[in-house]
Amino acid sequence: MSHADPPALSDAVVAITGSHVATDRSARLERLYRAHAARVFGVCLRMSGDRVRATELAQDVFVRAWEKLDLLRDETEAGAWLARLATNVVLNARRGERRRWARVEPVEDLAPLAPVSAHTPAAVRRMDLDAAMRRLPERARMVYVLHDVEGYAHDEIAAMMGVAAGTVRAQLHRARQLMREALRA
Question: How far is CA 73 from CA 62, 66, 81, 158, in A?
């Protein structure tokens, strides 16, 4: 499985519907899943920076999609709708994690990222975009992914994150600087 492969659909529809009977609604969700799971998983992976967490978040996105499926009128808009759901699910999960961390004393993992092999060509080391994105601070990574990878506008990102558009621009500028530095190293 490559780093951008979505998790398996498994029994998600059965778990949600409580039935093995393929209804129009469950068939519609399955079509959406098959067409858009890779992109949803990619958004979750890039925003969370963690493959296991991205798998959980992607599943949450499709649970949310099931709950809101009646709101999707035009299936040609499904990709954008699911990307927006994915973004909101990740942001809401971050907010919940912050509240939980505020109640406990966190233990930081001081183990450094696995070093790149000395035999890896410099050009390849510089091109490890995923590793560079994972090293970005959380909010800078979110802004970078939403703007430069997913194509959202500054105002849209500001509304999603609950910050001013100027803050988004500043975080994006800083994220781009950090990405350039990481890719030059």
Answer: 17, 13, 10, 26
Give backbone dihedrals phi and psi of 44, rounded to 5 degrees, phi first: -65, -40
Burial of 53 (0-12, 13-18, 19+ CB in 10 A): middle
| The overall pTM is greater than 0.70 | no
Distant-in-sequence contacts of 165-170, Cβ < 8 A, 24+ apart: 168/143
Burial class (CB in 10 A: 0-12, 13-18, 19+), 133: buried
The single-letter code of the amino acid at 123 is A
Q: What is the pLDDT of residues 108-135, one digit of tens each?
A: 554 544 555 666 666 555 567 778 888 8
User: For residue 159, what pLDDT is reported?
Assistant: 85
pLDDT over 90 at 173, yes or no: yes
What is the model's pLDDT at position 160?
Answer: 84
From CA 44, how far away is CA 21, in angstroms rounded?
30
Count of other CB atoms within 10 angstroms of residue 130:
13
